[in-house]
Amino acid sequence: MELHRRMSRQAERYGSRLVVERAEALTQICGGFAVRSASLTLHARTVILATGVAVTEPQVDNLAEAVACGAVRYCPICDGLETGGKRIAVLGSKGASLGEAIFLRTYSDDITLLRATQACVLSQDQREDAARNGIRLEERLPEAIELVGDQLLVRFANSESDWFNIVYPCLGSAPRSDFAAALGADTTATGGLLVDSRQQTNIPGLYAAGDVLEGLDQIATACGQGATAATAIHNRLRQL
Ligand SMILES: Cc1cc2nc3c(=O)[nH]c(=O)nc-3n(C[C@H](O)[C@H](O)[C@H](O)COP(=O)(O)OP(=O)(O)OC[C@H]3O[C@@H](n4cnc5c(N)ncnc54)[C@H](O)[C@@H]3O)c2cc1C
Hints:
The protein is of the alpha/beta class.
């Protein structure tokens, strides 16, 4: 919060106007764009979209508390290094969750892939890949996951249960690219915005940075893309 406050103050010092409101629509107007919120409409010649992704949350009792104490985590690339020797579960039924489990094997020998759906969607090849990498495939579908102390208790049918130090939900995320897509911006099949080397979408003047793009969801990546977009916009506006 302190970092956010100081960065906001710095932006304002250089003339930025900060509006803390939800943008409800983005439209193209002559010479640029209009962004509408509940109380105002802003006009701009260029826009950088940095709306991130909507992450699908797991059904975990006391989820906020579990996230706060590090029992539920979302980003193995960010904090996998801290999980050494822990008993870890990845919750998800798709190939991506197996990829996440294999990534975490670098840090822990005890990785289980927990099902998120009744149906098994892993192919035979993926199951063999899991076995080769020492990933345990839990065939029972969890009925409940709850925080007990600083561990997660996973309950199955017939009063069976298991516990883990950490659960990484891998249930998917959706880039918040609707505004750009509505204007005709190109996206991947999963909704990630596509941009050129200057972070511009195929809509002239509409740029994008961060998780809303297809790619590595990391703060450093988002900041770098933001810097690239800002520089391109600076140069573009000087020519208009
Ligand atoms: C639990 C967790 C831990 C993480 N840990 C790390 C880490 O340790 N290191 C690391 O590098 N990365 C980490 N990440 C990833 C990192 O947070 C993201 O890569 C980064 O925040 C992306 O920045 P962004 O600006 O694209 O999106 P965000 O930070 O998600 O910001 C997007 C913002 O846009 C706002 N928004 C969306 N739609 C609208 C709208 N219509 N109107 C107004 N505002 C809107 C959202 O409310 C949000 O505030 C973590 C992610 C999670 C979920």
